[in-house]
């Protein structure tokens, strides 16, 4: 079956070069998500309901962070109008265990194009 997306993502906590904060853990010191997004190449966008929450996608783009989108059926918000594959990384849930390798394989030139 499809893995739980948040659980699969949290499995990468402690991975070199990754900043993952479990906001459900109340003992964790709060961080400014916008500051971290501005300082990051990639930002995971939680799926939200149905095809994702467009507010999450847009905030990532506006901060200059490439959205990493994990939606089980690969349908994205406004997909009829927006070519997501040009400026986002689409990762099927079953590929989340390989997320660090997938993101590291994207060249600086490709990141700049996105």
UniProtKB/TrEMBL annotation:
Signal peptide: none annotated. InterPro entries: Exostosin, Exostosin_GT47. Belongs to the glycosyltransferase 47 family. This is Exostosin GT47 domain-containing protein. Coiled coil: none annotated. Residues 3-106 form the Exostosin GT47 domain. The lineage of its organism: Eukaryota, Haptista, Haptophyta, Prymnesiophyceae, Isochrysidales. One of its GO terms (molecular function) is glycosyltransferase activity. It comes from the Eukaryota.
């Amino acid at each position: 079956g499809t893995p739980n997306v948040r659980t699969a993502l949290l499995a990468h906590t402690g991975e070199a070069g990754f900043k993952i904060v479990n906001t459900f853990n109340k003992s964790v010191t709060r961080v400014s998500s916008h500051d971290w997004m501005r300082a990051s190449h990639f930002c995971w966008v939680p799926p939200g309901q149905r095809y994702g929450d467009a507010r999450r996608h847009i905030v990532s783009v506006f901060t200059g962070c490439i959205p990493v989108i994990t939606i089980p059926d690969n349908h994205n918000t406004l997909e009829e109008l927006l070519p997501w594959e040009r400026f986002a990384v689409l990762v099927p849930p079953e590929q989340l265990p390989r997320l660090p390798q997938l993101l590291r394989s994207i060249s600086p030139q490709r990141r700049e194009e996105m």
